[in-house]
Amino acid sequence: MPLEHFKITGIAVSQIFLLAAMGFFLVKRKFLEGAGLDAVSNLVLDVTLPVLIFCQLIKDFSFQAYPDWWIFPLLSIGVTVIGLVVGFLLLPLIKGEQHKLQFLSLVGFQNSGYLPLALAAALLAQGELNAMFIYLFLFLCGFNLVMFSVGVYILNFHKERKFDWQNFLSMPVTVTLFSLLIIFFGLNKFVPDAVIKPLRMLGDSTLPLAMLVVGGNLAELNLKNINKRAISLLILAKMIILPAIGLGLIIVLGIPKLIGLLILIQLAMPSAVTLSVILRNYKKEDLLVSQGILLTHLASVITIPLFLILYFSRIMLK
Q1: What digits encode the pLDDT tens for the residues 35-51?
Q2: Are 210 and 277 in contact (CB under 8 A)?
């Protein structure tokens, strides 16, 4: 079982690295330059990601089928708050305002979709897997709202800039709220599959395009100048402290198996790939984010299996 966990995580993470490597190669070989990378970033945030959110909600969600749906968005907010609190406590050890903000976002926001889905599909039997997919889907509804409101605000914050509500109404947030409104009034029943299918194809391109941006951002960085202090603290906070907190809460509160696994997986995830896309979209200098995404994903090959082993060992001892 331990070797199987390492294998599952390694395969899922390696697929993400391969996509980032393609973006790195395209920029290094001048097939894709700064303006092109900006265009891809804008495409992800303003088109493909909102389309993906719309398709998932319209076709897979209803308030009647999931009367307790609100628990999972709240759970996603709780996971984010834990991450932001841990990141905030370590901020005095980070130098520079923008470094602090990027560090805080890296600790607070995780790769909440692709890796958890891949891990769940590999770890669980079909019955439990169907339930976990529903949990993850509902979790992502809340996470996307927080990520593209609070997350955008943190990365785009400047002391001299007044508060701007537009940071809380990015396209992904607007589309999420709009989709829920359509579902509430039952209008989603009138959206034909002939419309949904091509939109879903477009939405499915979100992860590959986002990883191209991450790889492209890395190609523009001088990785010889890695902020060793910040990255070390990030790996400590994100990959060790947060999953340890999650494991402790699960044990103390006696949380059921699947919900406990959801909490642990989310708190054990590396930093969110989309942070790099947000920075690019808002024309902010990437001081720490791409480094943090790359190195937390590398660290996750070791840390995620270790915490999964601890979790399943605890399950078998009950």
Answers
A1: 888 888 889 888 998 89
A2: yes
